[in-house]
Specification:
This is RNA polymerase sigma factor FliA. The chain has helices spanning 3-37, 46-63, 72-91, 96-116, 122-128, 133-142, 155-161, 164-171, 174-192, 196-207, 212-219, 223-240. With 247 residues, the protein is mainly alpha-helical. It has two domains: 3-91, Rna Polymerase Sigma Factor, Chain: A; 96-240, Butyryl-CoA Dehydrogenase, subunit A, domain 3, CATH 1.20.140.
Length: 247
């Protein structure tokens, strides 16, 4: 077979394979987008995340190497999430005022926790911040999307995801493995110390992967209330894990 014809056939086969990967995993993009957007402010459009996620999926299909021994879904998920996080970083999706409010809440939780020797109640945090309970809960709702580790904290990890060699190096670095093990243990302890309802919200959201509306149905509360409980749980965890979350 002449070289030009063989090259043309190879390119057609390669393109067909890439298209097949994209077609079969388009639902993965939507699943990641909807799960991510449920933790973000209402100003973030799920369609925008899906659009950049599809670009991440196409990049994954183009660069996927079957011989690497990694499932395509695992490889693609990293690229899809990375593309979405890059978009969120560039959009600066969380208002500066909301970030300040959450820092104030985290500081109040630390102070009250030390003073009371237990997890403070919502009313106690509100009183400490000189807010009514309603104002405090509105602040929690405003901070929807607050993360245990902020998007900027993921920057190095996402860069490493784009390099298979770096991922391998990290996986075999004893110090990194030890640090990750310690963090997981501290996180488990922090979650166990949460008030029961907040602990249940975290379990339903992260373990069972229910969305806020579904969790509201389980707890017989509104979606807005679930959002408040989630934000408060994240604030409690960040306050307790200050050394690990860059506080």
């Amino acid at each position: 077979m002449p070289a030009p014809r063989a090259l043309s056939l190879y390119r057609q086969t390669q393109a067909s394979s890439e298209d097949d990967y994209v077609a079969r995993h388009a639902s993965l993009v939507k699943r990641i987008a909807y799960h991510m957007v449920s933790r973000l402010p209402a100003s973030v459009e799920v369609d925008d995340l899906i659009q950049v996620g599809m670009m991440g999926l196409m990049e994954a299909a183009k660069n996927f190497d079957v011989s690497a021994g990694v499932l395509f879904e695992t490889f693609a998920s990293q690229r899809i999430r990375g593309a979405m996080l890059d978009e969120l970083r560039s959009a600066d999706w969380m208002p500066r005022q909301a970030r300040k409010h959450m820092r104030d809440i985290e500081a109040a939780l630390v102070k009250l926790g030390h003073t009371l020797g237990r997890a403070p109640l919502e009313s106690e945090v509100a009183s400490y911040l000189q807010l009514s309970l309603e104002e405090y809960q509105d602040m929690l709702t405003e901070a929807r999307g607050h993360q245990l580790v902020h998007l900027d904290d993921f920057e190095d990890d996402e860069e490493n995801h784009h390099s298979e060699h770096n991922v391998a190096d990290l996986a075999h670095n004893p110090l990194n493995q030890l640090s990750e093990t310690h963090f997981k243990q501290k996180l488990i302890e922090a979650i166990d110390a949460l008030p029961e309802r907040e602990k249940l919200v975290m379990a339903l959201y992260y373990d069972e992967e229910l969305n806020l509306k579904e969790i509201g149905a389980v707890l017989s509360v509104t979606e807005s209330r679930v959002c408040q409980l989630h934000s408060q749980a994240i604030a409690r965890l960040r306050a307790r894990l200050g050394d690990w979350t860059g506080q």
